Task: inverse folding
């Protein structure tokens, strides 16, 4: 596997359902579907969080420009369909699609495949180079791959959402690419097997140092030859260069995995005792379902946050509907659904209740100075190679 993560080993941490509490059995079953077509009000049980959310049907927010009515009218003529290429789990999408279809009920068919992080871009590039792509909207948290894709000519539709004026500056990740969610990375551990409660990377290293034999080969982290693993690990060391001394204690005892789902399963089973840089989105429901066996903490010495980018494909077959969808997920209505689906909302005013998680909740927990936001910028190949060589040189074998 090459050391350059832009075309290799993408994040596949999507196998674990990311539903909030009280999810219905029907909704849970969605997580096993590889490609999902949802119709209006799909997956919304009467006891499901958000099922009774008030959505202004067919109406844009009052602060949108008057000409937005033309976008709505154009969408009605596009056949009621939308195609999304993403690495986002169907459980995450379910409440978003449900509420989007409440708002724009003529959109009867939403197709969302479940690709690896980099595959989102590889597939659309291949299709655009041949007979054209059916993709309308692209969603992925592979920051390096997004940066590479966005700089290519003719890949993205130029579009500035009217919602951006209501969002913080970091909502714009790249020209024509916005943040749908901002998902933190965490430490997870098997509470029955780990002696102590780690609060960060230094804390975990202190626990491990008391009995290194017990933890040898029992610590998991992300594979840095993959786009996701590289981005979060590199961002951490850039934000906390002094942390290399801590990593020098932990990595020799560790093993790399390419998905959060695998990490969670193996910590629960006891194959690993703890893991760091594990995506909180799939971890939240596993922690809740574990009855206290699986514990999660943010890092008080630097919690990495990975934005999940959304953009509209150039020559999207359903351009107007793609604009409606993009604007919706950035809106207050959409961000409530984003949080309900297990991702982390970042728009001000979204409550962290009923299993919903917010960026503001994270900042309150660890302090703003301890939040490290991943930037959507390309890291030069020489730096990628130097970082992965150093990291993998420390990693246990």
Result:
């Amino acid at each position: 596997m090459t050391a350059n993560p832009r075309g290799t080993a993408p994040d596949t941490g999507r196998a674990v359902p990311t539903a909030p509490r009280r999810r219905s059995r029907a909704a849970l079953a969605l997580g096993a579907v590889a490609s999902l077509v949802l119709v209006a009000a799909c997956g919304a049980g009467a006891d499901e969080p958000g099922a009774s959310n008030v959505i202004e049907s067919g109406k844009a927010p009052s602060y949108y420009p008057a000409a937005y009515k033309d976008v709505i009218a154009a969408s009605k003529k596009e056949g009621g369909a939308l195609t999304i290429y993403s690495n986002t789990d169907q459980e995450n999408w379910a409440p978003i699609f449900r509420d989007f279809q409440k708002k724009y009920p003529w959109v009867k068919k939403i197709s969302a495949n479940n690709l690896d992080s980099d595959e989102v871009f590889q597939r659309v590039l291949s299709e655009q180079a041949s007979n054209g792509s059916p993709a309308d909207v692209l969603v992925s948290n592979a920051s390096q791959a997004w940066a590479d894709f966005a700089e290519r000519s003719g890949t993205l539709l130029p579009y500035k959402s009217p919602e951006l004026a209501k969002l913080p500056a970091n909502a714009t990740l790249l020209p024509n690419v916005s943040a749908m969610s901002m998902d933190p990375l965490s430490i997870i551990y098997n509470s029955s097997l780990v002696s102590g409660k780690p609060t960060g990377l230094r804390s975990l290293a202190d626990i491990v140092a008391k009995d290194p034999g017990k933890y040898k080969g029992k610590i998991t982290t992300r594979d840095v030859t993959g786009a996701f693993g590289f981005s979060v690990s590199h961002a951490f060391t850039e934000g906390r260069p002094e942390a290399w001394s801590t990593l020098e204690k932990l990595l020799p005892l560790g093993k790399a995995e390419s998905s959060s789902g695998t990490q969670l399963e193996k910590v629960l089973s006891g194959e690993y005792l703890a893991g760091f840089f594990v995506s909180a989105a799939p971890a939240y429901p596993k922690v809740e379902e574990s009855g206290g066996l699986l514990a999660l903490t943010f890092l008080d010495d630097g919690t990495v946050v990975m934005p999940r980018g959304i953009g509209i494909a150039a020559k999207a077959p359903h351009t107007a509907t793609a604009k409606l969808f993009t604007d919706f997920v950035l809106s207050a209505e959409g961000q409530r659904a984003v949080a309900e689906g297990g991702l982390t909302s970042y728009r001000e005013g979204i409550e962290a209740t009923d299993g919903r998680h917010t960026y503001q909740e994270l900042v309150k927990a660890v302090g703003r100075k301890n939040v490290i936001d991943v930037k959507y910028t390309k890291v030069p190949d020489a730096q990628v190679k130097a970082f992965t060589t150093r990291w993998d040189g420390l990693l246990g074998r």
Observations:
- The chain has 15 helices and 14 strands.
- The chain has a mean pLDDT of 87.
